[in-house]
Write a structure and sequence with these properties.
Layout (H helix, E strand, L loop, with lengths): L2 H7 L13 H12 L10 E6 L2 H8 L5 H5 L3 E8 L6 H21 L3 E6 L5 H8 L6 E10 L22
Antiparallel strand pairs: 1-2, 2-4, 3-4
Helix pairs in contact: 2-5
The structure holds flavin mononucleotide.
């Protein structure tokens, strides 16, 4: 598959086979995360790979993607680290670019994944406690992943009306 094929084929996969994902594949996904661009190349993030079923069930309750995470053999918590870059906007941008790279790697490895958003609210503290996070480290988002138990085709979303040249 070419890079562009992976981009156009990727869809959010929310149903997974009950099958473990090989360590080598997880490593490749993490490597793709580390390859993402970040402001001043500070890479203000950490990745927490969660494959403990009980822990997945607990963290899923704190996420808006509860149902999806519950059924996933692996969940990766993408953590923003404000000790490395104290500007929240940049940390959110940087962790988001990691997540997208990782979703593309997941598709490229013939696995399926879904970005599960995390709100900046009282669940922050609960997540931090549950995952034993250090000070100023927070869950930017979760990625649920596994072998696909559903197939999806992405439609062409190109929208001329949303493309502007020079001024709006
Ligand atoms: C910041 C963010 C948070 C998301 N959170 C969720 C979520 O909690 N639950 C969910 O089912 N999908 C979630 N998604 C996936 C989107 O619903 C999905 O990307 C969108 O519907 C487009 O579909 P596609 O990914 O198949 O192209 C999230 C995506 C983003 C970018």
């Amino acid at each position: 598959m070419s890079n562009l094929d992976v981009i156009y084929q990727r869809s959010s996969i929310r149903k997974y086979q009950d099958k473990a994902v090989e360590k080598e594949k997880i490593h490749e996904i993490l490597k793709a995360g580390f390859a993402a661009p970040s402001a001043r190349n500070l890479r203000p993030y950490h990745f927490l790979v969660i494959d403990d079923k009980q822990l997945i069930l607990k963290i899923s309750k704190l996420s808006i993607g509860k149902k999806i995470m519950e059924g996933a053999p692996v969940v990766i918590a993408v953590l923003g680290d404000l000790n490395i870059n104290s500007t929240m906007e940049f940390v959110m941008n940087d962790t988001s670019s990691c997540i997208q790279n990782m979703l593309l790697a997941i598709e490229g490895l013939n696995l399926g994944g879904c970005w599960c958003g995390q709100r900046r609210d009282e669940t922050d503290k609960m997540n931090a406690k549950l995952l034993n996070l250090p000070e100023n480290v927070f869950v930017s988002g979760y990625i649920a992943l596994g072998y696909k138990a559903e197939e999806k085709v992405q439609k062409d979303r190109f929208d001329e009306k949303k493309v502007h040249y020079n001024c709006w």
